[in-house]
Structures are given as structure tokens and as C-alpha cells.
Amino acid sequence: MRTLTRGFLIFAVVALTAIPAAADELISVKAGYQLLTPKGTFAVNGSSLVGTPIDLDRDLGFDDSKNLTAEVALQLGDFRLAAGYLPIKFSGQGTLNGTVNFNGKTYSGSAQTASDVKINLYDVSLGYHVLNFDDTPVRFQLTPEISAKIVDAKLTLDGVEAGTATVLHEEESVTAPIPTLGARVRVGFADFFSVIGRVGYMKYQGDSFLDADGQIEFSPVPLVGIYGGYRYFDVHVDESDVFVDTHFSGPYVGAFVRF
Asked: What's the rounded Cα separation, in Å, for the pair 259 and 167?
């Protein structure tokens, strides 16, 4: 995993240094509001105890994540370098479906239990326009991308130890860099209206990440506009005794400025 991430960074540096100095420059900044609904399971091993998979919906009734998101993109010639940040937070409480092993402790299945899942998702991507028609009535870009997703997750569980009245609070963190390969398509039907689609995927050493996104941009004022879309994540992480197998999806809206 570290080798792939290092290779991505080397590729980014080489590609950007190869761009002609006279290339046009365009910076775009986006800020939005993302709603995500969670599905899936997580587990944490510890003290020779195999973690019990906990269902986000059935066991703990996790609510939706509602957070701000941000992206900055730099366009240099046919190259596009972008960096994005999305904080994700789910929480819920309920009665577990039987006893649960979490981080070396055994939780009672008959007591009220609460949990939080916090994920900071960082996304750095580099793309190259293999097709770039910007002087036709309908503008079209096809951009293969290589991206580095960094999943920084923290899992907590509060409840009662099985067979006792001891209150338990356990937490575990994991950081997993996951490179992805994909493509971005942009279709501009007019100067003020565009449709964008993006997908990236990679599976490597037990970790996998799928990120799919569809977006509409509307810019009634030059260089300023609004956007909205729908995003889907499928995240599988098996690192450092932490197992996460989840997918998140939901709509988002926001505003952007270009200069």
C-alpha cells in the first residue's frame, strides 16, 4: 500500500513538471453540504478475541451523517490536480443482537449500547484530459484519474460488560491509504450548465474503495455557481485488527467559484 501511494506522488510530481509553463491556469474552489446514509458492519479484534461484526443499522440504528465538504482543483493545460476533504460521522444506540466482542472486551447483548464512527476522508487526484473538446457547441472532457484516498477512521463502543455491571468504553483508530484508478467525464451543454460523472476503484491487500459521483453545475453568473449531485462510497478496510465493510450514499449541494 505504501509503495502504491509513493508511486502516485512520484507520478504527480513528474507529470506536473512536464506541463508547459505557458499553460492556462484555472483554480476552482467548492464548498458543499453532504448527507450520507450508512449500511454495513464493523468489528475490532483485541486480546486474542475475534471482533464480532456489528451492523450499523440493525444493531445500533445509526443516523445519517450531515457534514460540510470541500474541494480545490488546479487546471494546468490538460492536467487536473485536485484535493478534497469530507468528514463523515455516524452515531447510534440500541440493543445488540447477542453478546459482542469489541477490542478485547465482551459487551452484554441485553443492555443499551451506543457507538460512534468518525471518518476523515482525504482525496488527492491527478487526471489528464485524453479528450478535451472546448470549442464545440457541446463541450466534452474525458479524464482518466489516479487518486490517493486516505481513510482516517475512529470507532467507539459504550455499553455494559457481559455478566457484570461494569460500564465499558472502548475505542480504536485506523488510517488506511488506498490508491484508486478511475475516470472523470464532463459534458458542458452551455457556458452555464454542465454535467459531471466520476468513478474510482481499487482493491489491494484486503482493502478496497469504490467512489462514484454524479453532479450538475449551474453558473448563472460567470465564474460563480451552484452544484448538486449524489455520491456513493463502498469501503472495505482490514487493517490493524480493525475490520470495516460499509457503504455510504446520499445527495449533496454546494457553491463554487473559479478564478
From this structure: 55
- For strand 54-55 and strand 79-95, is the pairing parallel, antiparallel, or unpaired? unpaired
Global model pTM greater than 0.70: yes
| 3-state SS, one letter per residue, for 159-205 | EEECCCCCEEEEEEEEEEEEEEEEEEEEEEEECCEEEEEEEEEEEEC
Domain boundaries 2-258, corresponding CATH code: 2.40.128
Name 126's bridge partners. Answer: 81, 146
Domain boundary assignment for the chain: 2-258
Which of the pair, 46 or 145, is modelled with greater confidence? 145
Other C-beta atoms lying within 10 Å of the C-beta of residue 179: 20
Rounded-to-integer distance, Cα 248 and Cα 60, Å: 16
Residue 19: per-residue pLDDT: 41
Helix (H) or strand (E) run with residue 252 in it? strand 242-258
pLDDT of residue 97: 78
